[in-house]
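In the current project phase, we have settled on a layout for protein records. One protein thus recorded is set out beneath this paragraph:
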Amino acid sequence: MNVSAALGIFDRKEKITLSVAIVGTLVTAIAQAVGANSILVFVLAAITMAALASAVGDGTDQLGSRFGPGATGVLQSALGNLPELFIAIFALRAGLVTVVQAALVGSILGNSLLVLGIAFLVGGVRHGTQRFGKAQSRMIAMLIMLSVAALAIPTLATRPGAAAAPHSEDLSLICAAALLLVFGASIPFSIGGGTGGFEDVTPTEKVWPLPVALGVLAAAGVTAAVVSDWFVNALQPTMTALHLSESFTGLVIVAIAGNAVENVVGVQMAARNQMDFAISVILNSSLQVALALIPALVILSQFIGGAHLTLILPWLLLASLGLTAVLGAMIVYDGESTWLEGVALIALYVIIAASFWWG
């Protein structure tokens, strides 16, 4: 395939997205290499990740017409969580445990409250009441609730004076291994092999060849991981320059930047009235963070050097996580969404974020 034919696969919007992603990566790399102002590098890296997120959204659209929303949601969420994985690894090596804990919890809150809320709001304003598959969304929401309960046990069991208090790392490792086993067992349900899947959606009008769709997704995911390294390098100087607390930075800024893929893709799908895709992408991302990313980082932190991550969370983080899981399950239980539910979810996210402003 010659260059002209290859470019002809993409429409104008897709060409712009890919161009911004490529140019943004190069500019951020140069800024990082020449030692530019940390805030500038931070902003450039965030913009580049947003462009890469849009590219992942385009690739997800293409895969959706072949594999269905369940399987595509799992794949897209896995690629979308790559930046979060690398951001957390680099931050742990730098000793930023508070930032990592807040960012991981913030990732779940950001997806389940902010991104889902924006998706409901945008979709509801454009299309009225929207509907999505009940069985699959209920299953994912229930697994999120169960995983959050499992994450809460180490904090409760190691409270001051408890017998397990000196064994927080051991208990965290045991819980992490159990959650990873549940994650492996949950994959068939997430791709529609459980009690019922999401409904099919209308295929995209302009179909890419399968290798192109997979290539765009893989390249965007890997590049986002590289850009996340530059993002972390600029993180600590930016916090100092802007007088931001580690808790707020992790919960809001790092979590939103790491979730750029879901932020873009979920809202795009809802705006197109493809709510099965939107719910699959957004909820699968929260589920993968709770069931896979957090426990994987607990185990990896034992080997990568730097600080060790445990599941012992501050009480306000834990309470916010529990409330979010319960509310998310209630919201998706009826298989319908409205713009007012979106406004309520966004408002709760703002309240929780504001409570961490002072650390």
